[in-house]
């Protein structure tokens, strides 16, 4: 297991760049063509209510039938439920893993296993403009402690934005049971770029997720059995006590509750 550094670094050097300013380079999503954007809006207007509590297979079969172009499935590697579902219902879709370079070693091993288990679907790995070492040099050491929102923006939000450019929509692992900030999240919506945002396991509980993993003998992230029901970067994730909010260990001790991918 990778241990977590919760020690705030010294900040004697003040010659660092403002973390609110991202490094030069691509960091936004290419706009959709007007016809696709209109079609996506029509689909959400027509089907969002119908799909709100629909089962995962119905949502994914709907996506395969109606999406006006290519879709990509985002995988955090906390579990591989979406990969398994997509292999059956969206076999043409690509997989996307955001490698922040701060992941637990176990998370990277799950990503490797996913590539091996699902060879018919391309696994795309997206990274930030700067490596960890470059980020420390430009913005100061341990930005995840001194400015966690900026760190998430540069290492998660912006790489996702760039990676989504070739696609008309993305499939997410959002679940309403993950916490109060997601309690009313829709199964189908538009993101800020007008792309379809599809969440097939939105109604699943942690228990239902576990049942699916067991029934299909899926790849397991070993930390999920060690008190980590929600897994992000190793630097910003702690185990939680039984009965606690599953996301209570994310950015523990900080008012931050979301990385920005879903806000």
From TrEMBL:
It is found in: Cytoplasm. The keyword Iron-sulfur applies. Its cofactor is [4Fe-4S] cluster. Pathway: Sulfur metabolism; hydrogen sulfide biosynthesis; sulfite from sulfate. One of its GO terms (molecular function) is 4 iron, 4 sulfur cluster binding. Its main location: cytoplasm. GO terms for biological process: hydrogen sulfide biosynthetic process; sulfate assimilation, phosphoadenylyl sulfate reduction by phosphoadenylyl-sulfate reductase (thioredoxin). It is an enzyme of class 1 (oxidoreductase). Residues 1-36 are annotated as: Disordered. The keyword Metal-binding applies. Binds 1 [4Fe-4S] cluster per subunit. [4Fe-4S] cluster binds at residues 151-152, 233, 236. Keywords: Cytoplasm, Iron, Iron-sulfur, Metal-binding, Oxidoreductase. The active site is at residue 259. This is Adenosine 5'-phosphosulfate reductase. It comes from Corynebacterium matruchotii ATCC 14266.
């Amino acid at each position: 297991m990778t241990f977590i550094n919760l020690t705030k670094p010294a900040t004697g050097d003040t010659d660092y760049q403002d973390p609110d300013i991202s490094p030069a380079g691509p960091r936004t999503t290419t706009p959709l063509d007007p016809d696709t954007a209109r079609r996506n809006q029509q689909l959400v207007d027509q089907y969002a209510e119908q799909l709100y509590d629909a089962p995962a297979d119905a949502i994914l079969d709907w996506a395969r039938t109606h999406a006006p172009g290519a879709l990509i499935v985002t995988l955090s590697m906390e579990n591989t439920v979406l990969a398994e579902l997509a292999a059956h219902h969206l076999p043409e879709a690509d997989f996307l893993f955001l490698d922040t370079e701060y992941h637990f070693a176990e998370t990277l091993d799950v990503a490797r296993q996913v590539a091996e288990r699902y060879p018919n679907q391309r696994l795309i790995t997206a990274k930030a403009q700067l490596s960890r070492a470059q980020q420390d040099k430009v913005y100061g050491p341990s930005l995840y402690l001194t400015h966690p929102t900026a760190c998430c923006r540069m290492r998660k939000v912006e790489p996702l934005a760039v990676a989504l450019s070739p696609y008309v929509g993305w499939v997410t692992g959002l679940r309403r049971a993950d916490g109060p900030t997601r309690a009313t999240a829709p199964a189908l919506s538009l993101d800020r770029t007008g792309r379809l945002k599809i969440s097939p396991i939105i109604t699943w509980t942690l228990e239902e997720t576990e049942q699916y993993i067991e029934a299909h003998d899926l790849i397991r992230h070993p930390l999920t059995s060690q008190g980590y029901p929600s897994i992000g970067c190793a630097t910003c994730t702690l185990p939680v006590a039984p009965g606690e909010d599953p996301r209570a260990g994310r950015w523990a001790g900080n008012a931050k509750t979301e990385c920005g991918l879903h806000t």
